Amino acid sequence: xxxxxxxxxxxxxxxxxxxxxxxxxxxxxxxxxxxxxxxxxxxxxxxxxxxxxxxxxxxxxxxxxxxxxxxxxxxxxxxxxxxxxxxxxxxxxxxxxxxxxxxxxxxxxxxxxxxxxxxxxxxxxxxxxxxxxxxxxxxxxxxxxxxxxxxxxxxxxxxxxxxxxxxxxxxxxxxxxxxxxxxxxxxxxxxxxxxxxxxxxxxxxxxxxxxxxxxxxxxxxxxxxxxxxxxxxxxxxxxxxxxxxxxxxxxxxxxxxxxxxxxxxxxxxxxxxxxxxxxxxxxxxxxxxxxxxxxxxxxxxxxxxxxxxxxxxxxxxxxxxxxxxxxxxxxxxxxxxxxxxxxxxxxxxxxxxxxxxxxxxxxxxxxxxxxxxxxxxxxxxxxxxxxxxxxxxxxxxxxxxxxxxxxxxxxxxxxxxxxxxxxxxxxxxxxxxxxxxxxxxxxxxxxxxxxxxxxxxxxx
Length: 460
Description:
The protein has 460 residues and is α/β, with parallel strands linked by helices. It is 34% helix and 25% strand. The strands form four sheets. Strands 9, 11, 14, 15, 16, 17, 18, 19, 20 and 21 form a ten-stranded mixed sheet that branches.
């Protein structure tokens, strides 16, 4: 479709422009010019009576009679090339690292598509994050979408950066990170850039920064641009790509604000009724494709308003994704980092991506036993708060010792501390050695004989 220009608009509502009907298509890229300033936008409604354009910027100062609207005939696209690695872009994919524009003849529509279920490859093999609570108990599998449910004031940004700088795969295949910061405060963004720029960490990384001070509509585009780049790296360059989206709550809030401007009928808590399908259009772009050696893995981060896991954003995210990692404010108050509460957390694909050939044969049994033991710790703590610790049995007291050690020495981990998987599983056995062997009912006897610390000492 050729470029069309029109002078004058009918109405301006915040970031929305309303015009009479013009020939255009949904999501078409639009340039809005007033004087020397040019803003970008996209078509979000094209009906028989009117056309609505969403501006990526501030519409303040536009003159409805003198504004020139140029329809480009193309969707919003992102230029891609192998040289895109180690670059930093803003929320609309424009370079902000001072290294100039991406030189490429290839451009990709940022809207993309969910992967067709027929051509999906079942996710297997794991990504090592170097964080014991994740690698040992909530293993991240290639091609999985595993969100982190956090809360306001918790250190999810810190964990996101730690995963970005530490994550790796054990094979010789190429591995890359795409980090999309969505609506973050400037100090959080500065922390991300400063940390990831150290020691050449960012050489296999692409960073997109959308700040809280940037126009709200940009947040709608940022995760789509990031996923477009990830798909190019994975399915064109055959890399395994981990995409970190931080913070998807800001994305959903932007979606709600735009929906209010469009005067759409609100759903739960004012969010648009299509929130589920909109989130699915992003999350379902993760996965592996038959015949392709690359993969796209997602870690969306959601800061739950009021720590409410039933809030529409985490609730709908949980329906689409394959598990969740849940933060605990109680552990955060104990100064435990990362404050991961393993009991409500789950990695649904873990069982198929661990074990002999991927991690270690005893991994599944040891992980299940730790879940069961820590669950019993919570029950015993509740009982102790009623009857007092001195009234507990010797076995229950051992569980309390186990629970304290598990939180302080297994879950708790330094920001700059990288733990290999072998280190992690040794720690898991060390935690279980605090309990009587008779309590280890979920572990095969041959694994206890081979790996239990007491048996290893006797062998030595």
